[in-house]
Design a protein that fits this description.
Belongs to the HypE family. It contains nine helices and 13 strands. It is of the alpha+beta class and 353 residues long.
Length: 353
């Protein structure tokens, strides 16, 4: 669980004294308890001029081409090493917008809460949402709260929708991928999925495996400032991992993709955990990672720039778009063998994001 006291000190937003310790069905009734919950929590922590209107929607101003994305989050457990469902929800939607080449600006935030969730847990989630929004530079402008009966949820589900303006130098589309493009990954794979799995399985290592959840929008914006049109496609490999992303792209665009296992960055403890549990890290979910398909002429400079960013210190060139074996992804192993990489056939890690 995140350090609540550290967050409270950072935000100067101590939890108020309330006449209830857990959330009940009454908090979803729309009456007195609902208003107490929202006034003392959501509106207090996330206060801003647009949200403070407390209207059915938000009136916002955007210029030029706009990106819009939505996602739902139902991770279990809701608190995990390196984060919780609150910041995951913000970062997930912010990153989806960034992958479109957008500059995220506004979010909606909707909760489906199971009765029995403690107010302490809800408070910590709200504080994490606040911190994640401040770090990403986005504002929650509208939302909704519902409460379901015990046993009909899993503590809390969150839906976020986001909107932002397209970066003036962005031209991101899978149609722009071409033969010779270099494939660059921003950091270590499989950390998020294994952070959650280590908690579920009670695994202990020399140091704790942490989720990689973070916002990527500032990193992407800086790369677009410098490399603009040379960036053909951006994508974040969440559920299904990098293997599923590559297979989808190869099939959709009719190109071949070569991947080199020796170039894939992965933390040693994450690799050991995957081996222990019999999991292939290329299929494990990530939450603070992105993949870039860039023009071959800028690949080295792009990589150098990315490695100077906090979100890209472990970045590497891991593959190439090729004309041979169209619609197929081929991975060359560390010892030189080759294998066909397909999509994840089932659910390797359920309830991961």
């Amino acid at each position: 669980m995140i350090e609540a006291n550290k967050l409270k000190m950072q935000l100067k937003c101590p939890m108020p004294k309330l006449d209830f310790d857990v959330i009940t069905l009454g908090h979803g009734s729309g009456g007195v308890l609902t208003n107490k919950l929202l006034d003392s929590g959501v509106f207090k922590i996330l206060s801003n001029p647009l949200l403070d209107e407390r209207h059915d929607g938000a009136l916002i101003n955007l210029e030029g081409k706009t990106a819009f994305s939505t996602d739902s989050f139902l991770v279990s457990p809701i608190f995990f090493p390196g984060g919780n469902i609150g910041e995951l929800a913000v970062n997930g939607t912010v990153n989806d917008l960034a992958m479109c080449g957008a500059i995220p600006k506004y979010l909606s935030l909707s909760f489906i809460i199971e009765e029995g969730l403690t107010m302490t847990e809800f408070w910590e989630i709200l504080l994490s949402i606040k911190c994640a929004c401040e770090k990403a530079g986005v504002t929650v402008v509208t939302g909704d709260t519902k409460v379901v009966e015990k046993g009909k949820g899993d503590k809390i589900f969150i839906n976020t929708s986001g909107i932002g303006s397209i970066h003036p130098k962005a031209n991101i589309s899978s149609k722009r991928i071409k033969i010779g493009d270099k494939i660059i990954i921003s950091g270590n794979i499989a950390s998020h999925g294994m952070a959650i799995m280590s908690v579920r399985e009670g695994l202990q290592f020399e140091s704790e495996i942490l989720s990689d959840t973070t916002n990527l929008n500032h990193t992407i914006s800086a790369l677009l400032d410098t490399f603009g049109d040379g960036i053909h496609l951006l994508t974040d490999p969440t559920r299904g991992g990098i293997a599923t992303v590559f297979k989808e792209i190869a099939q959709h665009n009719g190109v071949g993709i070569d991947i080199f296992q020796s170039e894939l960055p992965i933390d040693n403890q994450v690799s050991n955990a995957c081996e222990l549990l019999g999991l292939d890290p290329i299929y494990v979910a990530n939450e603070g990672l992105f993949i870039s398909f860039v023009d071959e002429s800028i690949a080295d400079d792009f990589l150098k720039t990315l490695r100077n960013d906090d979100n890209g210190t472990q970045a590497n060139i891991i593959g190439t778009v090729v004309e041979t074996h169209p619609k197929q992804v081929i991975m060359e192993s560390v010892i030189g063998g080759k294998r066909v990489v397909n999509m994840l056939p089932g659910e390797q890690l359920p309830r991961i994001c």
